[in-house]
Every structure is written in C-alpha cells, then in structure tokens.
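Troubleshooting: if your tokenizer reports a length mismatch, compare against these two reference records.
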Amino acid sequence: MYYCMLRSFNNNGKNFIRLVKASVCQKPRSCDTSSKLCAVCHRTHWPVSSNLLRPLMHVLQRHRTHQTTSHRYVSSTVRRKPMPSAFPVIDGGFQPVHKHVYEANLRNSLICQQKYLEHKQKVLKGGGENAIARHTQRNRKVLVRDRLRMLLDDENYFELSPFAGVGLPYGDIPSAGCLTGIGQINGLWCVFIANDATVKGGTAYPITVKKQLRAQDVAMQNRLPCVYVVDSGGAFLPLQSEIFPDKNQGGRTFYNEAVMSAMKIPQVAVVCGSCTAGGAYVPTMAEEAVIVHRIGTIFLGGPPLVKAATGEEVSPEDLGGARLHSEVSGCVDHFATEESEAYEYTRNIISTLNYELPEESSIQSEEPLHSSEDLLGLAPRSYNYSMDVRLIVSRLTDGSRFQEFKARYGTTLVTGFARIEGHQVGIVANNGELTYEASLKGSHFVQLCDQRDIPLIFLQNTSPAPSHTFSQAKAESNTNRLKAQGSMMSAVACASVPKITVVIGGCHGSDSYAMCGRAFDPNFLFLWPNAKVSILAPGHSDALMQTEEEITQINEMLEDESSAFFSTGRLWDDGVILPQDTRQVLGKCLKIIKQQMYQLSREKMRTPFLRL
C-alpha cells in the first residue's frame, strides 16, 4: 500500500509543506523493499513502515479536525450561554453643578422631540388623502403599511430612514416614496423594500433610488434576506440625470441584486402593482417572484407607449399581467388571486430558507440602574453643554456596568466593554477633543475588539472646529495629533467587526471619521434629534472667513444645514432616534447582525442565481 503525505517543516523561521513519499505494507514484516512508482506524485520512493508514519498521520488528523472546527456553523441544537459578566457598576448620578446644564439640555431636547413627532405625522400621511383614496378605491390596492402588516410577523419592525425625502430642493417626497426596514418573517429578520404608490404615483425620485440602494447595502453587510414589495411607476423623467447615469444610481439596484444572489443572500419579490421600465428587472432578477392577479403588471413600456409606437391598443393585463407572466413567459413563480394570498406565498417562501434559528434565550438582561428618560437632559444642545459621557453609557448598558479600558490615559475618549441586552460590545465615546493620546487609545481599543470579534458602538460628539495653530509648540502637537488620528482611522476602517454609530451631539470635521462616520461604512448610523452634522459647527467659522458679512452668511448656512432633520432628509444616516429609545434600537441591531451566524450555507458562490 502506497501513500503520499504532506509534512510540515521549518526553514529559517518560515513554515513550508513538503510532499512525503512513503509506502506502507499491510504486513510490515514481509514488506517489499523495492522502489515503486507513486500513483499520486508519479515519482519513485521507498517503502516505509506504517509505525514510522503514525506520528504524521496523527498530525494530519489533528490538522483536519482543526479545519472542521474553524468552519463549523452555529447549530441551534447546541446550548450555549454567555460568559458571566463581572463588569463594575459605573456612577451615573448627577452632581448639583450639573443641574443648570441638564435643564438647558432638557428644554432643547423637548423642542427637538416635538419636531421629531411632527415629521413622523407628516410621513405617515403618505401622498395625502386624495392619493390614498385613489389607491384604495379606484385601484383597489392595499396601503403599504397594511401590506407590511400582512407580510411580517408583527408591527415591531425596524424602519430605516423614515424621514428621508423631506425638505429637498425638488419638494417633499414623504419617506422617499418607499418604506425600507428590517422585520421578522417566520422568526427570520429580513430587509424589506416596499414602494408607496400614494407618493407621486410610485414614481422613483433620486432620493428613492438612494434609499433602495442603502437598504440593499444593509442586507449585504448583515447578510439578511431581502423582500421587494414592488408597486412602481418608473423614474421621474425631469430628474433623469440624477437617477440614471452614474455608478450609484438606478442601475446599481440590479447590480446589487446579482451580487446578493452570488453571496447566497435570498431575495423574493412581490409584484402588487406596476413594474414599469427599470422596475421590471426587480422581480425578474429575484430568486422567487409572486404576482397579484389584476393589479400586478411587468413590462418595460406600458400600453400608452405601445400605442404611440405601433398604434395598437392593448390592456395592461394582456401586455404584462399575472396570467401572462405566470403561464407564458415564466417571469414569475407564484400566481396570487389577491394581495393577502401573495404575502402568504412570500411567508412560505421565506420558511424554505436554510436557517436554523436558536431557541429563545431564557436569560433576562439587566436593566440599567438609571432611567432612560434622563438621556433627554444629557443630549447636549451644543458642544459647551456636553456632560460626562459616562452618564450616557450608564443609561444604555446592562445593569449600568462598564469595564473601562485605559481609564487614566487619553481621558477625552472613553473606551471599554459592556453588555447591551445581553450582547457584549466595545464602546468608544467622545468625552472632549480627540487628542493625540485619545487617538492612540482609540486605535488600540478598536484593534483589541477586532482581535476578539466584539462589535463596536461609537457614541459620537466631536469638537466643533479644528484646533488652530498659534505657536510652534502647538504646531508640533497638532502634527502628532494628526498622525495619531490617521492611525485610529486606519484601525476603524480595517476593523472587520460590526460597527454601530450614534451621533449624540456634534458630527464635525475629521474627528467624525475616526469615530466611524458615514464614510467609514458602519453597519448602522443613527442621530439623536439634537445632533449637528457639518464640517464646522454653527458659529465657528470666524477664523476661516475674511469679512463679517461672510461670517454671518456661512454661520446661517451651517445653522440650517447642520440640523439632524436636514441630514436624515438626504439619507446621510439610517434615521433619527429618540435618546430614550437608544438602548432598544442598539439591542435590536445587535440581534439582527448576529442572525447571519445561523445561516447553514453561506459560502460565496462563483455566479449568481439565474432565472429562466
């Protein structure tokens, strides 16, 4: 019996693997000592006793076991429990000196909260009463939020960027004309992208495309199944230059669909309205598609275009209706007589996905020792009204426990370990300017979390303006600070663990990049209503402008454009959240991110799934 085996050896500190040629006779005592030609390596080598190969066999078996273990997927049949937490409780009490700051912050937060509620009421109305009546009575369709109620397990879904599209130069587009978010279907978290046809008749504006692409990014980054609820009238032609030609515009939707399929991220489409022009590719590129009889249509050009081109009159049903595509073209896989049946089909499709979800844990996480309502008074109205960020941390973490890292070094950045609704996280929080020491500390901690596969939570409240250089000593200090911040940016950009950013105050200048701003691709990024997002904070442009008129003009612009609602209207974030809801939102995000561990088959494929 002949074998070719791999043997590891070391040469000058480098590991190599060598092919070991050996033959093993089933009867060692009568082993043939003549040379043989190996069928594996096609070389001549000499027989060796099986006793001599036993150590090598043991090494190979151990290597094989290690490989199996490292590629093992989590099974719900194995009961696991988190390591016990021995984190100390941090002091979250207020000092009397904080009272006037707290009260000023509270007054500002209540004003911001009222603005938040007004925006919420505005987007809930969709396209307005007339559009809703036309959608439900004349077109006999279900409203988009009612569609989500039929599709999802419950109404406890997580909507992304609900205020997108409000306050744009080309007018208000409530919710950007589509609802996106993450909800559970048969217990499985799924991204949904649902057109709201009451807003401009389902027409896609530039902000609509941007919101759809962001939802696809969330699905790819967190490996979540994606459900498209399609009811679209195509692109808004007067703004075609902002919808069609560029890389991250309309065509990127279909590119993402192909890439997601290649990544083995399931996609299902429900056609419950028009799929015209580019929208027709969404269901045809999904893995499975459902269409609703009489209201669902798929075509590149509708009946008016056919008549203009050929003079022929044709009905939408005959041109691209449910019967045509389910019986003739094969573009869809399931025919539904009404919308409720279509969502039942979709739920059944999701139940076929190859996931093994864990049993609900009976372990209850500790609530913080302090009320989350206190966060309204801790949300700074401006940078000068910032309080110790540990007061905020103590109202977010389980049991108000926090294991601080390098507590005495770089004190303007607070770093440490905690649990949020049972999930272990690393917290990086601004507590002043991001100095040289603070940047080195942040870089160290981010790499530490990356090494241990611990998700990172960034609580961002950066300084309102860059540090000015008034002397040679200050110039040297700023140079060192610049290099240290570059090191922290590299650590944040290269960290492969999930990252969630919450802007609790200011998001200004290069400090925001080191604190995992939008450009550094966090899994999720949220703003508190009091947040300010701009290159400079309002009122800090004096050193950069020449005249009083320029200073006034720039400060007025910064005041208008730094608002959290200005930012979220342009989709620079994933939504504005109330401070008191932050712990709940973070817990849900961490749970959503963790779901990818339970997909049984998630290796990347060479090619996407292709339909007929």
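Reference record two:
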Amino acid sequence: MVSGSFSRRLPARLTPRIVSSPRVSARRKLWVAPRPPSLGDLAAAFCLASLVLVVGCLTYVYVKGYLGSGSLVVGLTGDADACDVFDGRWVPDSSYPLYNSSECPFAERGFNCLANGRNDMDYLKWRWKPWRCDVPKFNVQDVLERLRGKRVVFVGDSMSRTQWESLICMLMTGVQDPNTVYEVNGKTISKTIRFLGVRFQTFNLSIEFFRSVFLVQQSLPPRHGPKRVRTTLKLDKMDDMSRNWFDSDVLIFNSGHWWTPSKLFDMGCYFQVGGALKLGMSIDSAFTIAVNTWASWVETMVDTNRTHVFFRTFEPSHWSGSNEKVCELTQHPLAEAKANDQTEFSEIIVEVVERMKVPVTVLNVTLMGAYRSDAHIGTWSHPSTVTDCSHWCLPGVPDAWNELVFSYLLVKGEFPHGGIKWDKISKPEKVVNRWADRSCAAVFLGAFLQLLLQLCDADRWSKFCVIPYHMAIRLITARMQFLGSPPLMIPMKSTRVPRRNQSTAKRRKDWIILTCVEHRSLLHHLPEAPATKAYSANTW
C-alpha cells in the first residue's frame, strides 16, 4: 500500500509526495519525533549526576587526603595550602619589639646590643611577613595558658640558646610576679653550661636548653690512632644527654655552625663510625650521617603523638672581606637576600626529614636571616673587643622564629586553652574546605531535586535515587564534622515520601545543612531539626 501526506494549506498537486513502507515510516517517525523525557527522567539524571559528584568527592578525600604530611611548609592564616611562611620579607612595624632585654633577667648580656652601646633602634622595628599569608601576633597570655604544665626543650649550639632566651623573655612579659620564674639550678646564663632550665612556677612550665653542638657523641679517639686525632665524633651515636630530651612536649633542634674545618680538623677532631676512624671523610658527608642518626633516634625514641619535633636550618652570617673576618652592619634589612648561608646543610636537613616515618617540621629560617645584615651583634658585644656577625641581637630575629613555632602549634589546634580543645585541621578537612565552594552549587542542586521528586510524587525515582543519595551523604558527614554558625536548613524528606519508603526513612525528617559561601564547610547531618530558621518544602 502506498501512503502519502498532504498539506492542508497547499494544493495537492503542489505538495511533494513521500512514498515509503509502513516499517520505514514508523522508524522515521520515531527518529524525527521522539518521546519527550518526563520530569522524572530529568530529575533522575540530575540526581545521579549529583550522586556521582558526592561519591567522587568522597573518593578524592580518602585517596588524596592522606598522601604527604606537608611537614616542610607551615600553613598559617590566609591561603594556608599555598603559603610558605619562610618565603617573605621584613616589613616595618612600630609595635615591635616584643620585650626589653634589659628587663629580662635571662637575656645574656652578650646579646643585649642596646645595653652594650648600640644607639639606633631601627633594627627592632621589623616584622616577618610571608608573601601569601600572615603570621598571627604573639599573644603572650594565650601562649602561657596553653603551655601550662608543658615542657619545651631546645637542643643545639649557641644559636639555639639565643632562641631559648628569646622565648623566655617573650613569656616573661605576661608574668605578673617575676620572682616566680627562676633557673632550676640557680645558675647564671653562660655559654659553657651544658644544661639550663627556667621554670615558670605559676604555669608549671619548663623551658630548657641542652648544649649539644653536634647532636652526636664526642669522645676520645680509639687506641693506636694518629697523634693528630685528639677527639672524634661518633657519627652513629647520639649525644649522651639525649636521654633527657625526648620526654617533652616541644623539641627544637639545630646544628651546623660547628661543622667547619676550623672547629673540627684544626682542633684535632675527626669522624668515627663504629670503631673505625674516617680521616678522609668530608664534612658534608659526616653531617649527613649525623642527621640520619638523629632521625633514627627521633623515630625510635620520641613519642610524636605527644612531642612536636622541629629542626631549624642553618642561620646565615654576614661576614665579609677576603678572609670573611670583616663585620659591617647595615642600618636596615637588605633588599635582596645575601649572606653566608651554608645552603648544603639546609638541603641535607630537608632531604633527611622528607624520608622520615614520623612527623617532623623543618623551620627553614635561612632565607629569613639572609636579609638581616642589620640585626647582628657586630661591635656591640660583651666584651666589646669581640666582633660578631653570626649571632643576633635580642630582641631580634630569634623572636620571629618563636612566633612561627607557636603560631604553627596554636593554629594546628595543639595545647588547648582552659580545657577547650581546638579542632585539628586534618588533611581530608583541608581538601574538603578547598573544594567546598566549587561543589556547593552541585550539591544544592541535588537537594533541590530531592524536593522536586517529593513534590512531584515520583515514586519510582524516589525509590531508586533518594536512598543511595542519602547513603552517600551520611557516609561523608559521618567522617567530616564542622562547627559553624546557624546555616540554611533544607529538609531532605517530606511527608510526601511514598509510604513504602518510610521504613527506610524511619518515619522522621532528615536535614542537611548547607554552608557554602558564608561558612565554607561541607555538609553537617542532624537527625532532628534544630531550633534555627528552617525552610520547609512549602516555602519553595
């Protein structure tokens, strides 16, 4: 049979005739005019897309969230994930210094440049400012409360002692009765004493310093050794005093300034591994072995769940001249970093820490000090006949090191204040925070589609889509709990859910809190509606 189609508006003789079989006609009609998708089809498609997004976000959190510890970069306020606090510049700040060395009984006279005759005070008015974030201002009362009952230990050379004195003077400004702060053995601060400990009696706080310039054991040479060998460094054994270090809450190391030919070979000190002398070993190789010995000791002896371990890199000096014995200070920080920084030592420290199995934070302060040719002791030493372009005046650069250490600890949520524990920022939470704004619109769309399904009474799609979607939401929110101000409440099940699904819903309303732009968090699941402003399905 032949079938044709005619236009009612045109004459039959002017209308083109289409001749085809019924089977061809049926196929062509199906292709030209397909059945329009129903509302349920569209809702199901968007709902499945939203489910894929949620599951993908969950997979990303679990897979990526635990890779790498980020121990080399300390993230503080601002763009924490992209901020290296050790990359920045010194900016003028009239609120500095944080203390007066002359009023601090634990500041060594040799580091008190003002008391030793320095007249200009410009070097005191500088604050370290990272490029991408800010270091919180040191709040002495807050730090003292959070350090109540703690033990802070510094281990290293005279640079470590400088940082130790700096921290004590910073904390002394928050103590009402200075007589409650004392050295535990009644000793006067001296560079030759191997142990110094200051106790803050009111806060049950101990700040201690152990002098260990090499970190490893220094001893007499083996028998029948060359006469030039007077002492040796046992690179595979830690200092005998290391047994007093690990039982602490904060443990800060440094080493490097004594690893020079003048303080080793010229003094008859050579390297030893096991029972064998290593007379031809270079200083860099020996330093690498020593740092690896230290790393093994930390991994086996230190409880890093309690103790926060730091290793500060080499502090630069500003000696000049052909023999590097000229010390000429500037009045302001340099515009470009320029110093004798012993970069190879810092690189060794970073490489060793990267391979460690426990969390250790590297305080990479080398660049910070390279700008400060104005902040060394110079000729304002004690006695004045000694010129010093290596050590720093107090107050000065070591204060910034302490600000970084304790800002890091407090921002990370350590040392709760007044019994209130800060929420620790875990790696998965950082990932979710970073992606929350990007995925919020899609998740909100999923919530809207759930309401749409319920309002339209799409029974078959509700059974297929609502339950898996809520399972994914429950799984994510069970892992991620964020605190925030009252957000927008959207009910995810209404009374229009089909009765056969009410057993799954447990005959109650579920709520999802969306905190997208204002609160910047993920989803918070509550079994009951809280007493905040809520929008029911009828509001839409």
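Descriptive notes for reference record two:
- The chain has a mean pLDDT of 75.
- The CA atoms of residues 76 and 135 lie 6 Å apart.
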